[in-house]
Amino acid sequence: MAQTLTSSPRGHVEPEFPPVGALRQPDGSVEWTLWAPLTKQVTLVVWREAERQSQVMTGCEGYHRARLTNLPDGTRYAYQVDGQQYPDPASRSQPDGVHEPSAVYSPERFEWHDAEWQGVPRDELVIYELHVGTFTPQGTFDAVIPRLPALKELGVTAIEIMPVGQFPGGRNWGYDGVLPYAAQNTYGGPAGLQRLVDAAHQAGLAVLLDVVYNHFGPEGNYLSKFGPYFTHAYHTPWGDAVNFDGPDSDPVRQYVIDNACMWVRDFHCDGLRLDAVHAIYDFGARPLLAEISAAVQAIAKEQTRPVHVIAESDQNDPRLIDPPEKYGFGLTGVWADEFHHCVRALLAGDNQGYFQAFGSIDDLAQAYERVFVYDGRYSSVRKRRHGAPIGVRDRSQLVVCIHNHDQIGNRALGDRSATYLSENIQRLACGLLLISPCTPMLFMGEEYGERNPFPFFCSFGDDNLIAAVRKGRREEFASLGFAWGEELPDPQAEATFESAKLSWAWPSGEFSGRLRKLYRDLLTARKKWRPLKDRQHTTARPLPGDALLLVERGTGDSLVAIANLSEQAQPFPEVQLGNRQLLLSTEAADYGGARTSQNERPAELLPYELMLWGKREQRT
Predict the structure, then answer these.
(1) Site (Transition state stabilizer): which residue positions (predicted)?
(2) Would the pTM count as exceeding 0.90?
């Protein structure tokens, strides 16, 4: 429908902002609504059984609309403005790519089989981040489905899919999308995504979708042909900022809010990961993030299932997860990357760029106990105080990892830690992650020590843009203070993309199978051991000698973890274990480790060993 006006109690006229796109109506017709205040006339072009038809859309208050009958899904259409044809900014399907006509798609016609699905509560989330294009040889939504049982058996409860909004070509991380309502055609389009979500729910897995609202990609981006979607008031590292608080920003905000709701309502997604919210510039009195969360949670309430809205942010700002009544944004969770930075600085020795600000055992202890390392303290890298204390907020709202797409892909070669860290360090890193009180996230393949890289890749069609991307990658590493000694992989080369495909193999007698067993055992422990289920009581401190860390989970009969963060064996520390027994060691022979005996109190900790001590009855 075109924009309508309603009156407030005092007679003030308030605009309403209708859903946009080609939407199937109850009578079977298709109604198009386009927000295009920059043009007075828009022509709808439709290819009906290969015959090109056109009609001028009716316009009112910046909205243009048209309605046609007897159109099946798959019918191609485009908008013609000033003699040029463009895809629909709210296209639900782009079968031929970002530069070609859109296609009618009615997501409500999909036949679902998940009526019994009740979702996954926040405190049960174990997230597995995956990239559809490289997760399988086929690189499609459908190809993911046969691998879901293995993830369920591992102990994963939710998959997080990297962005699928239509991007140019067939090779991209997904953060260069330009049509956020259309699921990537080369992955299988919208129907393919619905089949994957449906299958995941039947397998007992939630589906979180990574969405990008801070910018749109550079190729196939025709939004500015229709309206003031962008602003020059701010700038992001990836281009012009989206207009969320300037003149005519209300329809832009609604465009994003409706998109978030579409994934939850029409595609049954169980949550969204909001990319880099610190680059969403919105200084109005009603924060966009809060409006997204409120709209999504309204759907969750209707459908009586938990839906999670998780932000990526480097601001260490607890307000993101505070409820609106406490002047917060009301999000379900937020990434806490500083845990990763501490682990990597300590175990891999990284000390360039932002890793300079981490690297002590005290920092890691604070990451366990207070989550944010920089919670108001001075940062030598930022050269100012940074962050605020997380306080007593539920630790399940904080997402931690030891790998993610950025932290692997933004290494110069995209090389994974399995190629440069020893086996015992990899086991220790696994243990450090999975004893955290926060929500853990794995990156695809880490559970078995995947060795294939995950470099940055793309498939743009413009030579100048390709050259700019190559140049920009080198400059980005230089600006972050990272040095590298080898030539960067060419992001445009198909071989770079192919190199990222998972091997997806973990023979039981080899390191990969044993590492995966450690992940599975620790994920099982998180579900069954009472102290690990207690998210609110965690203490941590370095032990004398500058090599050992003690982490205590729970109260009363707590679980005690002792980690040796050095390459040398260390005398077993003088700590009070009471009648606790050794429950798990990352150096046990079952995991490929060097510990040959299970003494209740050994003389020493082996290099890079984590030991868990507790009551046997906790393992129920």
Answers:
(1) 406
(2) yes
Q: Looking at per-residue confidence, does 545 or 564 come out higher? A: 564
Q: Are residues 136 and 214 in the same domain?
A: yes
Given 245, 258, 312, 423, which residue is catalytic? Answer: 312
For the chain, the domain total comes to 3
Binding site annotation covers 277? yes
Check whether 408 is labelled as a binding-site residue. yes
Q: Which residue has the tokens 């920089």?
A: 374
Average pLDDT over residues 156-174: 99
In contact, 541 and 144? CB cutoff 8 Å: no
Same domain, 226 and 319: yes
599 is in an annotated binding site: no
User: Mean of the pLDDT values across residues 346-357?
Assistant: 92
What percentage of residues in the chain have a pLDDT greater than 90?
90
Residue 320 CA to residue 342 CA, distance in Å, equals: 22
Q: Alpha-carbon distance 372 to 335, whole Å?
A: 10
CA dihedral 342, 344, 348, 351 (to 10 degrees): -70
User: Is a pLDDT exceeding 60 seen at residue 6?
Assistant: no
* CATH at 608: 2.60.40.1180
**Does 142 share its domain with 235?**
yes
- Nearest Cα neighbor of 97 from 196, 19, 171 is 171
* CA atoms of 98 and 120, how far apart (whole Å): 34
pLDDT at 420: 97
Same domain, 151 and 271: yes
